[in-house]
Design goal:
The complex is a heterodimer of chains A (110) and B (117). In chain A, 0% of the residues lie in helices and 60% in strands. Chain A has 110 residues and is mostly beta strands. In chain A, strands 2, 4, 5, 9, 10 and 11 form a 6-stranded mixed sheet that branches. A 5-stranded antiparallel sheet of chain A has the order 1-3-8-7-6, with no helix packed on it. Chain B has 117 residues and is mainly beta. Helix content of chain B is 0%, strand content 50%. Chain B is built from no helices and 11 strands. In chain B, strands 2, 4, 5, 6, 9, 10 and 11 form a 7-stranded mixed sheet that branches. Chain B has a 4-stranded antiparallel sheet with strand order 1-3-8-7, with no helix packed on it. In chain B, a hairpin with a 6-residue loop joins strand 7 and strand 8. Classes of the chains: A mainly beta (110), B mainly beta (117).
Chain lengths: 110, 117
């Protein structure tokens, strides 16, 4: 069964303390791995798409990487405004829908 | 340059009533997805539609739930005879579906929070 697992469930950082969020996937024929950010009471906001192992993408303090088994979202020198839930989702070859992880809730303290 | 729009943002219904949730996709997007989100369960796929066609409804309960995306107008998610268990946030997303291999990011609306009393 296709599955996406995110860890940790929750993470608390001090401002400036870099860390990484993990997204492990077991899907048949991965065609794309997506990262989203979701703030309370709002819809998910698209961040990155990764299509193949070895691919990396960056946006401000965020950098997403992809291997054949997992993806990482690296957060460098986070700020309080980076506090949110970060979701990853996999698009598998046999499905026309995204398979979502449960997210990592990130809190960055000033 | 409007994104995905959903209305209403909040909807309260009594048990047994009907709920109609509307979604206007990003201009030019012809693919619409509906999701349901509960706090401890994450996003759950419900249905994928293109204009006038249901492509995949495997995540939608067969009874009481229906969805449409007409040639003109918004996509509608309809829940008949609502029960308390239908209380959740319902999100709509749209995509243009012209990325590599037909894979595109989905852009989400702000959601409709349905409360059944």
């Amino acid at each position: 069964e296709d599955q996406v697992t995110q860890s940790p469930e929750a993470l608390r950082l001090q401002e400036g303390e870099s860390s990484s969020l993990n997204c492990s996937y077991t899907v048949s024929g991965l065609r794309g791995l997506f990262w989203y950010r979701q703030d309370p009471g709002k819809g998910p906001e698209f961040l990155f798409t990764l299509y193949s192992a070895g691919e990396e993408k960056e946006k401000e303090r965020l950098k997403a990487t992809l291997t054949k088994k997992e993806s990482f979202l690296h957060i460098t020198a986070p700020k309080p405004e980076d506090s949110a839930t970060y979701l990853c989702a996999a698009y598998a070859g046999n499905n026309r829908k995204l398979i979502w992880g449960l997210g990592t809730s990130l809190a960055v303290n000033p | 340059n409007a994104g995905v729009m959903q209305n209403p943002r909040h909807l309260v219904r009594r048990r047994g009533q009907e709920a109609r949730l509307r979604c206007s996709p990003v201009k030019g997007h012809s693919h619409v997805y509906w999701y349901r989100q509960l706090p401890e369960e994450g996003l759950k796929f419900m249905v994928y539609l293109q204009k006038e066609n249901i492509i995949d409804e495997s995540g939608m309960p067969k009874e009481r739930f229906s969805a449409e995306f007409p040639k003109e107008g918004p996509s509608i998610l309809r829940i008949q005879q609502v029960v308390r268990g239908d209380s959740a946030a319902y999100f709509c997303a749209s995509s243009p579906q012209n990325g590599p291999g037909g894979i595109d990011e989905q852009y989400f609306g702000p959601g409709t929070r349905l409360t059944v009393t």
